[in-house]
Amino acid sequence: MTTRRRKREADKNDFDDVTNDMNNNNNNDDDDDDNDNDDDDKPKKPIFPQVNAQDAIGNKIEYRRVRCPTHRLTPLRAQWENLMSPIVEHLKLQIRYNPKNRSVELKTCELTDDPGAIQKGQDFMEAFMMGFEVQDAVAILRLDDLYVDSFMVTDVKMLAGDHLSRAIGRIAGQDGKTKYAIENATRTRIVVADQKVHIMGSFTNIKLARDAICDLIIGAPPGKVYNNMRNVAKRLKERF
Q: pTM, whole model, 2 decimals?
């Protein structure tokens, strides 16, 4: 009797072990199914193919035309190679000068890889036509936060005759001293062309330079403007 009882107990233990193993396997399978369901419920990231410049603009050839003023024809002829190099090599655009309408024409091609290249090229050529040096205009191609602001001297204050001439003289200063001081203090570039003033720089720096020029036009003494520019330069130096 003792032997039979031991045998029955051993068989019962084996059966319990097999049952426990089956239950554990079923639980693991349920967990795996739950994990698979969770993975299926998660939204997958969309995969978009890379789009080139031609596809971005709808496979269309874009043209831009920049008028050349009469007084900028000679500088354009002298600096043509320096102007053409960044347009062709950096932006991969086609450029030509049309003597009939006296304008520089830009066109995209199959090698253009930047959708905004045609706009950058136009901004670059317009900056040169305004009177900026080629080295200063190239900065528009390399930096994204550069802008050009233009305004008339008479927009600030209605002046005429000798009063207008004196206001323009106060902006330039003796031998360009005042203009250079404003440029160095605000980190901008300024071009005074007759009654027009063009300023190139970042948005904040353009505002500082415009305020200084407006003060000179209104009639503020240059010494006061120099003092303000000294304080502005000190603040910019501390900021950076």
A: 0.69
